[in-house]
Design brief:
- By secondary structure, the protein is α+β, with helices and mostly antiparallel strands.
- Helices cover about 55% and strands about 15% of the residues.
- The chain contains 8 helices and 4 strands.
- A 4-stranded mixed sheet has the order 2-1-3-4.
- Helix 1 packs across helix 6 and helix 2 packs across helix 6.
- The longest helix is centred in the N-terminal third of the chain and has 18 residues.
- The protein is globular, with a radius of gyration of 20 Å.
- The two termini are about 40 Å apart.
């Protein structure tokens, strides 16, 4: 069976269970942090899947990230990690965490967007962008702010699969393409 389908089913079941325990919001934040850890720590998946390491030590990799969290969400996460290890599905933890985040956003009607600029964006500008993206419920917009000096100037805004690229880098690429020059890296 496709691991994407399996991970999606685990994510849906976890969301349903977390919702019934009123810990879905806490788990949303936890799953975002867990999925970020996989990007930050290249060998995390190998370590979590290593059955030579005790289950408790492998669980501690994730549970220790949330030492200040309330007990109830930690219990739900611990039970979920137990389930994955019992079912020998440790290898799908990253996909499950990403799936949970997506399913939670769908359930709560959250619009996820990424604004990339050269300079930092102040809070007032961020709030205006949220209001522009969802005038009725700007609080339902999750805006991630990213700085990237390669843009040279302007901005890039991604909302779901749509991208508005008003950066100088994008303009330069268009000019270079129009005149047959090699693209900018």
């Amino acid at each position: 069976m496709n691991t994407g389908v399996i991970a999606s089913r685990y994510a849906a079941a976890l969301l349903q269970y977390a919702t019934s325990c009123s810990t879905d919001r806490y788990l949303y934040d936890m799953m975002k942090r867990i999925s970020a850890c996989f990007s930050e720590i290249p060998d995390l998946e190998k370590t979590f899947c290593n059955r030579m390491i005790s289950i408790e030590d492998r669980k501690a990799l994730f549970l220790n990230l949330f030492s200040g969290a309330p007990e109830k969400p930690l219990k739900v996460l611990s039970e979920f990690l137990d389930l994955l290890t019992r079912q020998r599905r440790e290898n799908i933890i990253r996909s499950v965490s990403l799936g949970y985040v997506d399913k939670y956003r769908q359930q709560e009607g959250i619009t996820y967007s990424v604004l990339t600029t050269v300079v930092p964006v102040d809070d007032l500008t961020a709030e205006k962008i949220k209001s522009f993206l969802d005038p009725v419920n700007p609080q339902k917009v999750e805006l991630e702010l990213v700085q990237d000096t390669r843009l040279i100037g302007g901005f890039s805004l991604r909302v779901g699969m749509k991208v508005w690229d008003a950066s100088l880098l994008a303009r330069l690429r268009l000019v270079r393409k129009a005149y047959g020059f090699k693209d900018i890296d």
